[in-house]
C-alpha cells in the first residue's frame, strides 16, 4: 500500500511541477535557479550558507546560481550590518512575480483536474491530504 501511495504522490507532484514550470519559458531561469527562488519565496531571506544547506548543494554552486539571478534582477544580495562577512539573499519583487505566476499556473491546472470531482469528493480529498500532511510533520 505504501509503495503505491508513494508512487501516486510522486506522479502527481511531478505533473503539477511540470505544468507550473511552463511559465519559466518566459524567463531566463534554470530549474536549479527556480528551486533557489522558491526557497527564498517560502522561507524568506537566507544566508548563502543556509541556502546551500536547504538546497543540498555546494556553496560555490549556490554562489553561481545567486550571481546569475542577481544580474537578471530576481534576487538581491546584501551584507549584514552586524557582521559584514555574512551575505544574505532575498527575492526581489520581480522574483516574487515569477513565483506567483508559477503558483497560479499550478492552481489553474489543479482546478482543471478537479472539474471531474463533485464538491463532496473535493472536500474529502482535501481532508485526507491534510491529515496525511499533518502525519508527515511528525517525522521531520
Automatic annotation (TrEMBL):
GO BP annotation list: response to stress
Entries under InterPro entries matching the protein: HTH_MarR-typ, MarR/SlyA-like, WH-like_DNA-bd_sf, WH_DNA-bd_sf
Name of this chain's protein: Transcriptional regulator, MarR family
Domain of life: Bacteria
Organism: Thermosipho africanus (strain TCF52B)
GO molecular function per UniProt: DNA-binding transcription factor activity
Residues of the HTH marR-type domain: 1-134
Amino acid at each position: 500500500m505504501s509503495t503505491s501511495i508513494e508512487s501516486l504522490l510522486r506522479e502527481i507532484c511531478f505533473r503539477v511541477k511540470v505544468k507550473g514550470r511552463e511559465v519559466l519559458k518566459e524567463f531566463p531561469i534554470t530549474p536549479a535557479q527556480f528551486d533557489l527562488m522558491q526557497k527564498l519565496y517560502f522561507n524568506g531571506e537566507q544566508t548563502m550558507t543556509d541556502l546551500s544547506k536547504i538546497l543540498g548543494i555546494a556553496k560555490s554552486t549556490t554562489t553561481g546560481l545567486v550571481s546569475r539571478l542577481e544580474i537578471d534582477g530576481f534576487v538581491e544580495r546584501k551584507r549584514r550590518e552586524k557582521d559584514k562577512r555574512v551575505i544574505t539573499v532575498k527575492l526581489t519583487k520581480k522574483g516574487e512575480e515569477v513565483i506567483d505566476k508559477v503558483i497560479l499556473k499550478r492552481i489553474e491546472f489543479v482546478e482543471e483536474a478537479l472539474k471531474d470531482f463533485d464538491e463532496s469528493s473535493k472536500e474529502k480529498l482535501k481532508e485526507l491530504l491534510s491529515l496525511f500532511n499533518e502525519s508527515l510533520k511528525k517525522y521531520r
